[in-house]
Specification:
Helix 8 packs across helix 9. Strands 1, 2, 3, 4, 5, 6, 7, 8 and 9 form a 9-stranded mixed beta sheet that branches. Strands 10-11-12-13 form a 4-stranded antiparallel beta sheet, covered by helices on one side. A hairpin with a 2-residue loop joins strand 11 and strand 12. The chain has a single domain, classed as Alkaline Phosphatase, subunit A. It is an alpha/beta fold and 414 residues long. The chain contains 12 helices and 13 strands. The N terminus is likely disordered.
């Protein structure tokens, strides 16, 4: 749909009373490769994140958020669709060696994305940053940066990956061009993702005697990402949009920096552990969502689309597994679930072929269920053992068996 047609469509919806004056703009901020504790508001001893700290204090913050997968493409696809990877079938970053990666785009084409659903309510939308699913229009965005052409370097964002690292001019232009029309903004900068090449002015703050240069660079990247979040929120403030905008914050997957090289440590990215799966989730909507913090309830990134759709007075598809957080912590949900797949898919149309782990969190307990070839089940008591060091699966055999049955009832992995 062209911009002119979309604006006219929005006007018609407004006159018909289908777009409420209380309907918010939506900004989704997605960190790329950052551990759940790597913020000052989450208690990190050195990393300074004043802008995200402010967002957390002004919004409602869940400190025990999770993404269903610890690899960026399936996690981002879940943020775009509200579905588990085994449901939207985008399970891996890349297809099998020798397979045309464009064949994987059939799955986003078949999906109903958040941008699609909001377009039905008269919203325009803008994609910037990480985006694996071809041209931004394939995700339902009306505007964007990623061309997705594999003959010109299209893979996981191409031109979109410049956002943040090279300023926010495309977003500022979008906000000015679409003034007066409700909008959805996908801000998924390639930060603090590698390459860890922060500005020297930031790196100098984190260098210290006895501290690995690799760690200092990663910490500085977290600070750089935070600065760009401040710039983005400043664009909204300067245009008088802050009070009418729902801001959502989440990370695509975790990262624990190794000390010996620019790489992630075990139990972080691509793993079934909290170092790869856990993230703070923040919701800020002035006058609609009261500021606060929940350190006990486990929530999922899959809850974000139902939350956004409810806020925007749009229908929430019954097939979505998440629940709205608009009224606060969900009542009655007993467990969260997720799944880990291979980096390169085995069969792009059959999720079970690439499956490595399924997992669930129930209260303070977490069960990791590997495929048989990867080892036995692992059970952790997260409150007492947040870094998952003591496997209690044998000691708590009855609990382990009950949680295995719950995982199989959720998705048998076939």
């Amino acid at each position: 749909m062209s911009y002119i047609k979309l604006v006219l469509f929005s006007c018609v919806l407004s006159l018909a009373g289908l777009v409420s004056a209380a309907t918010p703009n939506v900004v989704m901020i997605i960190s790329d490769d950052q551990a759940w504790g790597d913020y000052s508001f989450m208690g990190h001893e050195a990393i300074q994140t004043p802008h995200i700290d402010k967002l957390a204090s002004e919004g409602f913050t869940y400190t025990r958020g999770y993404v269903p997968a610890s690899l960026c493409r399936p996690s981002l696809a879940s943020l775009a669709t509200g579905l588990y990877p085994h449901q939207h079938k985008i399970t891996s970053n890349d297809p099998p060696k020798g397979t045309d990666r464009n064949l994987m785009l059939a799955h986003i084409d078949a999906a109903n994305t958040l941008a699609d659903m909001l377009a039905e309510k008269g919203y325009v939308s803008h994609q910037s940053g990480k985006w694996w699913e071809g041209n931004y229009t394939r995700g339902g965005f009306t505007h964007g940066m990623t061309h997705g052409d594999t003959t010109r370097g299209g893979r996981h964002g191409d031109k979109g990956l410049e956002i943040g690292r090279k300023g926010l001019a495309p977003i500022a232009n979008f906000l000015d061009e679409t003034k007066g029309t409700p909008f959805f903004l996908w801000y998924a900068p390639f930060l603090p993702h590698t390459p860890h090449n922060p500005p020297e002015r930031l790196l100098a703050k984190y260098r210290a005697e006895g501290r690995s240069e690799h760690v200092a660079k990663y910490w500085a990247m977290c600070a750089w990402f935070d600065e760009t979040c401040g710039e983005l929120l400043g664009l909204l403030e300067a245009r008088g949009l802050s009070d009418d905008t729902l801001v959502v914050y989440v990370t695509d997957n975790g990262w624990i920096q190794r000390e010996d090289k620019q790489a992630y440590a075990p139990k972080s990215k691509r793993s079934p552990y909290d170092g790869g799966l856990r993230t703070p989730i923040i919701l800020k909507w002035p006058g609609k969502i009261a500021p606060g913090k929940d350190t006990e309830t486990s929530v999922s990134s899959l809850d974000l689309i139902p939350t956004i759709l409810e806020a925007c007075e749009a229908d929430v598809p019954e097939a979505l597994p998440g629940v709205s957080l608009l009224e606060g912590p969900p009542a009655g949900r007993e467990a969260l679930f997720g799944e880990i797949f291979a980096h390169d898919a085995v069969d792009i149309h059959r999720p079970s072929s690439s499956l490595q782990y399924r997992w669930m969190v129930e209260g303070e307990w977490k069960l990791i269920l590997p495929v048989e070839a990867l080892g036995p089940p692992e059970l952790y008591q997260l409150r007492q053992d947040p870094h998952e060091t003591e496997n209690l699966a044998t000691k708590e055999s009855a609990r382990t068996e009950a949680m295995i049955q719950a995982i199989n009832a959720w998705w048998p992995g076939e």
